[in-house]
Each structure stands twice: as structure tokens, then as C-alpha cells.
Amino acid sequence: MPKSHVCKICNEAFDTPYILQEHHVAHTGKKPYSCETCDCWFTTSSDYDEHNLMHSDNKFYLCKLCDKKFLEEKKLNKHFLTHAEKRCGYICQECNKGFYSRSRLNTHLKIHSAPKPHACERCDEAFHILFESDFVVSDCGNGNSG
């Protein structure tokens, strides 16, 4: 189903009129949601709700570069790109690795498209090279002992 609620300022589309309305606040610079525990203010209720969970005992993912916390690993990975883009001008969209030159990125991209003939016997993980040193597949714990 296409997103039919479009922002007239930036043309970003949203699923519901409520989300569009919250988005409009971002264009004003106002932050109507404040945290009662610390001195943080938020543009959207969802950002506020996510922040409040940081004050709880829930598991979170910590950015090692700036100590920002995230409830989801994918949000941490997306955030990490902001650091990589400051240091490296070329970011791999597959794995978020950063490179200082387009040629190094292009060389790196080949590992994502290269054949992966070496498969793990216990899980679906496959590799384009067979390691001669010890390693363990993080998904299943199986590995190679040199």
C-alpha cells in the first residue's frame, strides 16, 4: 500500500496523517516532548518513548564512539554510519564499512558479490575464502580449528 500522506515541505511520504503531523513539528524546530529524568527534549512522541526506555533496565546497544544508546542493533548500525561518514567518505551499503577512497570501496564490494563456495555444515553461512586459522561462525558456533 503506497504512503499517501505527503509532507508539503520536503515531499516525504507517511502511512498515516498522525505520523505526518508529528513530522511537521520537525520542520518547526520545536521539541514538545521532555524527559522527566534528564534534560532531553524530543520532536516526536516515538523518540520520547524510545528515550524513556533508556532510563529503564532494558537491554540497549551502546555506540562506542559517542556513548549514545539504542534499543535496536539496526538503529545503532544506522547511527554508526554518521561517524563513518565523518571519517570516511565512502561507505559500503551492505555492511557499513567505511573507506577513504572510491577504489578501496569498489575492491571491498567484490566480497559481497563473489561466489561463496565454502559453506558451514551447521548453518546457512557461506564464505568466499576458507580460513586457515581458527574461526567460529557467530550464528551457530561451528568453526574451523586450523
Automatic annotation (TrEMBL):
Residue span, C2H2-type domain: 5-32, 33-60, 61-88, 90-117
> Record's Gene3D superfamilies?
Classic Zinc Finger (3.30.160.60)
Superkingdom as given in the UniProt entry? Eukaryota
Query: Looking at the keywords, is rRNA-binding present?
Result: no
Provide the Gene Ontology terms for cellular component. Answer: nucleus
Question: Which GO-annotated molecular functions does the record name?
Answer: zinc ion binding
**Which Pfam families has this protein been placed in?**
zf-C2H2, zf-met
Q: Which InterPro entries does the record match to this protein?
A: Krueppel_C2H2_ZnFinger (IPR050826), Znf_C2H2_sf (IPR036236), Znf_C2H2_type (IPR013087)
Could you list this entry's UniProt keywords, alphabetically sorted: Metal-binding, Nucleus, Repeat, Zinc, Zinc-finger
Name of the protein: C2H2-type domain-containing protein
The source organism is Caerostris extrusa (Bark spider)
